[in-house]
Specification:
Layout lengths: L9 H18 L4 H4 L3 H10 L11 H18 L4 E3 L2 E3 L24 H13 L1
Antiparallel strand pairs: 1-2
Helix pairs in contact: 1-4
Length: 127
């Protein structure tokens, strides 16, 4: 016998979209260095590297922020950014993925780690 799937209530969907919209207001101001990365892979890596305990420290806000980042990536780059064996896609003119800054490049207070300086040095030496 075919069982009808449970449908999400429209009200729940609209509430989620409003939460994402509020988060997106901040995300849309991100520069490319903080937006051009594979957000889903980053979250998976952070869980795998024990940056926080899943599910205890993994909050709904993380998912809301992720969705707002994915929306902004799609709006800005016309695709969601994905890390592949050939590098990040979509390839965007003017963005060098080697100079990209993500959460791993920042100290807890938001300052760039020394490793970011190494990335910049390597980039400049290539030129």
């Amino acid at each position: 016998m075919y069982k009808k799937p449970p449908y999400t209530k429209e009200k729940d969907f609209v509430e989620l979209m409003m939460d994402i919209f509020e988060s997106w207001k901040d995300v849309r101001e991100y520069d490319d260095e903080h937006l051009y990365y594979d957000r889903s892979k980053s979250i998976s890596d952070e869980i795998g590297e024990d940056w926080f305990e899943y599910p205890d420290e993994y909050e709904t806000d993380t998912d809301t922020t992720t969705l707002s980042i994915l929306f902004e990536q799609y709006l800005r780059y016309h695709n969601i950014v994905k890390e592949t064996k050939i590098g990040l896609i979509p390839q965007v003119d003017g963005i060098d993925e080697k100079l990209r800054i993500d959460e791993k490049d920042l100290d807890s207070d938001g300052d760039k780690k020394i490793d970011t300086i190494g990335k910049l040095k390597d980039y400049l030496l290539q030129r």
